[in-house]
Amino acid sequence: MRLIKCQIENIRIHSNLSIDLSPGITIIGGANETGKSTLIEALHRTLFLKATATGEPVEALRSKIHLGYPTVQVQFEAKGEIYLLRKCFTGSSGQITLSSETNGRQLSGSPAEECLATLMGVKESLSS
Q1: What is the pLDDT of residue 128?
Q2: What pLDDT sits at residue 31?
Q3: In whole numbers, what is the pLDDT of the chain averaged over residues?
Q4: SS in 3 state form for the chain?
Q5: Rounded to whole angstroms, what are the CA distances from 54 to 15, 30, 49, 77, 87?
Q6: How far apart are alpha carbons 72 and 64 in whole angstroms?
Q7: Is the Cα torsion angle 63, 69, 75, 76 positive or negative in sign?
Q8: Rounded Cα gap, residues 113 and 106, in angstroms
Q9: Those residues with Cβ within 8 angstroms of residue 45's Cβ, 6 or more apart along the chain or in another chain
Q10: pLDDT in tens, 80-113
Q11: Chain segment 24-66, per-residue pLDDT in tens
């Protein structure tokens, strides 16, 4: 699996942050308290936590200064295909879409979570 780009919205200090990732190595640098760890946590939770998750893991993503729900969009390559994943963490009504940019197939809800888990090589996404 290779991450290509990501966009995070309304996550901690980030109102809207977009990053293109290098096909080789990407180094994320910056001063203390500028959101480097926030970016990594948002990516991790997007890839391995269900959009409908509740509790501390989702609450920890919420911004105290920007309105709106934590939302992450990730473009990645896995198993020879390019995918676009979008998750909006709104608790039990969270939303996910997973689209294959290679063949145009689009999934949402539980089927998208199941497909993502398979692509990530895990049994299932976590609920909390």
Answers
A1: 64
A2: 87
A3: 93
A4: CEEEEEEEEEECCEEEEEEECCCCCCCCCCCCCCCHHHHHHHHHHHHHECCCCCCHHHHCCECCCCCCCCEEEEEEEECCEEEEEEEECCHHHCEEEEEECCCCCEEEHHHHHHHHHHHHCCCCCECC
A5: 21, 30, 10, 28, 14
A6: 17
A7: positive
A8: 12
A9: 53, 57, 58, 61, 72, 89
A10: 999 999 999 998 999 999 999 989 999 999 999 9
A11: 888 888 889 888 999 999 999 999 999 999 989 889 999 999 9
Taking the CB of residue 56, how many other CB atoms lie within 10 A of it?
A: 9
Query: Amino acid identity of 127?
Result: S
